[in-house]
Amino acid sequence: MSDLRELYQEVIFDHNRSPRNFHPLADADRSADGHNPLCGDQLTVYLRIDGDRVADASFVGHGCAISTASASLMTEAVKGRSLAEVEALFQAFHTMLTDAAPAPDPHDLGKLEVFSGVREFPARVKCATLAWHTLRNALAGIRGTAQTE
Ligand code: ZN
User: Fold this and answer.
1) Distance from residue 94's CA to the centre of ligand 1 (Å)
2) Which of 5, 66, 131, 134 would you label with 42, given CA atoms 20 to 30 Å apart?
3) How many CA atoms lie within 13 A of 42 on its CB side?
4) Has residue 1 got a pLDDT over 60?
5) Whether the predicted pLDDT of 147 surpasses 60
6) Ligand 1 mean position to 66 CA, how many Å?
7) How many whole angstroms from 133 Cα to the centroid of ligand 1?
């Protein structure tokens, strides 16, 4: 288990050091800002939607390692997915981080499982979910800033 934990931390460090899809999206048709005042995390998520699919996703911003790595892994995870799949992924991710008694392996979260340890640190859960709340606001076309509070 500790080996797994180390591997998870390495993935988070790596995505924080060199975040993927870390740029504004010139042809984005949706975007939203997110802010986690507890930690100071701030980001903007950009999406290009093609029919009912996320054709492209990117983000910019600054924050702690968990918020940056989460946004990086999220943009990778949602690219090419249908909107229904993205919503299911959000629900599974949220459940993994907040459910008191999650099923052992209830969802196919793939790389997003690296954040499973964050549930032990309730203050950091908001860092990990900020990008996702912001993504949902972008999808819903809600203007303004997603707050984790
Ligand atoms: Zn944070």
Assistant:
1) 16
2) 5
3) 5
4) no
5) yes
6) 6
7) 14
- pLDDT score of 149 more than 80: no
CA–centroid distance, 126 to ligand 1, in Å, is 7
Ligand 1 centroid, distance to 128 Cα (angstroms): 7
- Residue 19 CA, chain-centre distance (Å), reads 12
pLDDT in tens, 22-44: 999 999 999 999 999 999 999 99
pLDDT (tens digit per residue) in 81-132: 999 999 999 999 999 998 866 555 555 788 999 999 999 888 899 999 999 9
| Tokens representing residue 26 in the block | 């010139």
Separation of 51 CA from ligand 1 center, angstroms? 33
CB 118 within 8 A of CB 125: yes
Please report how many Cα atoms fall inside a 13 Å half-sphere around the Cα of residue 14, on the Cβ side.
9
Six token digits for residue 56 = 């492209």
**CA 82 to ligand 1 center in whole angstroms:** 28
Element (H, E) at 6: helix 2-17
Tell me the pLDDT tens digit for each residue of 133-143.
Answer: 999 999 998 66
The rounded distance, in Å, linking the Cα atoms of 31 and 46 is 4
